[in-house]
C-alpha cells in the first residue's frame, strides 16, 4: 500500500516532459534576447547612435498582445470549467489578436522606414528591426500552436482530458511568454534610446 501511495505522489509531482521541453526552450530564447539586448547596450555605448522615438504603432501592438494574453487566460479557464462556447471564442480571439499584433508590428516597421530609419542606416534602427523581427518570428510559432489548438477545439468532440489540458497549457504558457517578452522588449527599446 505504501508503494502505491508513493507512486501516486511521485506522478503528481512529476513535470510533464512536454512542459519541461517548453521551459528549456523558453530559457534558450530568453538567453538569445538577453544577448541581443547586451549587444544593443554595448553598441550604443560605442557612439554614433541615432536616437529616435518608436512609432506609436508599437505601443498599440503592445496593448494588443497584452489583451491576447488575457483572452488566452480566459480560454484556458473556460476549458477547465467545461464552458465550450467561451473556450472556443476566447481561443479564436487570441488567434486573431496575434495576427493583428503582427500586422501592427509590420505597420510600425513601415512607419520607421517612412521616417528614414532603415536597416542600412544607423545601427540603432537595425537593432529595433532585428529585435522586433525575431520576436515576431516567435509569435508566428505561437500562432501556429494556436491554429493547432483551434483545429482540435473545433473538430474534436469537446472533452476535458489530462492530455488536452496539457496541450492547452503548453500553448498558453508559450503565448504568455511571448507576450511578456514583447512588453519587456518594448520597454527596453523605449527607455534605452
Order of helices and strands: HHHHHH
Give the strand tally: 0
Distance between the termini: 64 Å
The CATH topology annotation reads as Four Helix Bundle (Hemerythrin (Met), subunit A)
Count up the domains.
1
The average pLDDT score comes to 90
Main sheet overview: none
What's the gyration radius in Å?
A: 20 Å
Question: Could you explain how this protein is built, in words?
Answer:
The termini are far apart. It is built from 6 helices and no strands. With 193 residues, it is mostly helical. It has one domain: Four Helix Bundle (Hemerythrin (Met), subunit A) (Up-down Bundle), CATH 1.20.120.80.
Explain the layout of strands and helices:
Layout: H1 2-13, H2 17-45, H3 56-80, H4 84-114, H5 123-155, H6 162-191
Helix pairs in contact: 2-5, 2-6, 3-4, 3-6, 4-5, 5-6
State the main characteristics.
about 190 residues, mainly alpha, Four Helix Bundle (Hemerythrin (Met), subunit A), 6 helices, elongated
Put the structure in a nutshell.
The chain is mainly α and 193 residues long. The protein has helices at residues 2-13, 17-45, 56-80, 84-114, 123-155, 162-191.
Amino acid at each position: 500500500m505504501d508503494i502505491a501511495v508513493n507512486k501516486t505522489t511521485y506522478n503528481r509531482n512529476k513535470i510533464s516532459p512536454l512542459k519541461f521541453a517548453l521551459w528549456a526552450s523558453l530559457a534558450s530564447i530568453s538567453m538569445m534576447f538577453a544577448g541581443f539586448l547586451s549587444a544593443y547596450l554595448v553598441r550604443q555605448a560605442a557612439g554614433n547612435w541615432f536616437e529616435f522615438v518608436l512609432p506609436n504603432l508599437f505601443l498599440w501592438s503592445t496593448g494588443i498582445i497584452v489583451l491576447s494574453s488575457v483572452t488566452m487566460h480566459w480560454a484556458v479557464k473556460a476549458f477547465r470549467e467545461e464552458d465550450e462556447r467561451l473556450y472556443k471564442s476566447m481561443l479564436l480571439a487570441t488567434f486573431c489578436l496575434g495576427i493583428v499584433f503582427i500586422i501592427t508590428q509590420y505597420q510600425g516597421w513601415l512607419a520607421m522606414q517612412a521616417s528614414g530609419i532603415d536597416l542600412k542606416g544607423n545601427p540603432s534602427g537595425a537593432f529595433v528591426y532585428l529585435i522586433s523581427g525575431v520576436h515576431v518570428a516567435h509569435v508566428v510559432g505561437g500562432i501556429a500552436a494556436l491554429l493547432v489548438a483551434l483545429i482540435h477545439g473545433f473538430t474534436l468532440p469537446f472533452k476535458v482530458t489530462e492530455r488536452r489540458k496539457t496541450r492547452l497549457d503548453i500553448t498558453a504558457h508559450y503565448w504568455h511568454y511571448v507576450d511578456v517578452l514583447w512588453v519587456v522588449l518594448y520597454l527596453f527599446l523605449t527607455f534605452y534610446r
